[in-house]
Amino acid sequence: MPPPQPSWGPPPPGYGPYPGMPPRRKSNGPMIALILGGVVILGLGAVGVFAATLNNKVKDTGYSAYTTQSPTFSLPTTTDTPTETSAPARPSASRTPSAPPTPAGPKAVYALADHPFLKPGFGANTISGCNLPAMDYSPAGQDRYLRAALPCIESMWKPAMNAANLPYQPVELHIITESAQYPCGTVRPDQTARYCQGGIYWTANAYAAERNPNNPNHPGKYLGQLAHEYGHHIQWLTGMLKASDRAQYDAGGWDTPKGLDLNRRMELQATCFGGMSLAPLSHGAIPIDVIRVALTDAGNRGDYDIYPTKDHGTPQNNASWVDRGYKSNKASECNTWAADPGAVS
């Protein structure tokens, strides 16, 4: 059977929580500087800012243990200094805050294989029901269907995020029917859905136009793809997506051998998290045939041989990871960052 239409492409610039980062970092050896008056001063200032930025990043030690840490700042304690008067000087007293400091809330952890969310114990909660409308394949119908499914998915994942002391916020859904600018660049209506900074950009016409035996127009296809994009939302909330972006940058770019390996691990983890989203829904929340088609559709997507760029993993590996997430419903089973190379090829 023919593969699905090409649906993958290079990650958009700034894919993840910090748009605008250069796509690659590489050393080109010494460069000859042209010194022209005041340009010297500006150039030195720019070099100083760039060096400070690099010094604040943890160096790449291999993505199996890649972590990042934001710099911390503290203010010195301020004391009252006695002034010279005719009266005797009084001892200085330290100033104390008028109210206790606000306790720190949940924060994302910028790590990959060693991320705490990938330790045993975290999974999507089972729900009793999910009332999805009849599927209408128009953009408006897809919008209604997906918006009805999202609260079900979110109600399964929020408790796991809270238990892991990680931040949570609902995802935003945007239906795209024409080329548009979004925080990560440009999204075209003929592409598959995109995720960026808390939002799913859903290209409704692209899915409705898919016509081959591997991708029947069935509600399960839409639910499965929504589950995959929501998997990217979990990566973003936990901090894994940002850590992956930084690791790709340190590797020299997403299209280097290591960068592509990281991209496949990131996409296959989203597929595995998508399987976890489908697992609780299979206990009577929605018809089981919708779940079956969703799983099959995930296994029919990926880097077929006809595609020159291998950045999403083979269809066989996509099928393996979505099945693994679905059968285990454990985030620890979705640690693609620690998987053998063959499992993420």
UniProtKB/TrEMBL annotation:
Topology term for the membrane: Single-pass membrane protein
UniProt keywords, alphabetically: Membrane, Transmembrane, Transmembrane helix
Subcellular location: Membrane
Residues that span the membrane, as ranges: 31-54
Main location: membrane
Ranges annotated as biased composition (Low complexity): 70-97
Chain positions covered by the region annotation Disordered: 1-22, 66-106
GO cellular component labels: membrane
Protein name: Neutral zinc metallopeptidase
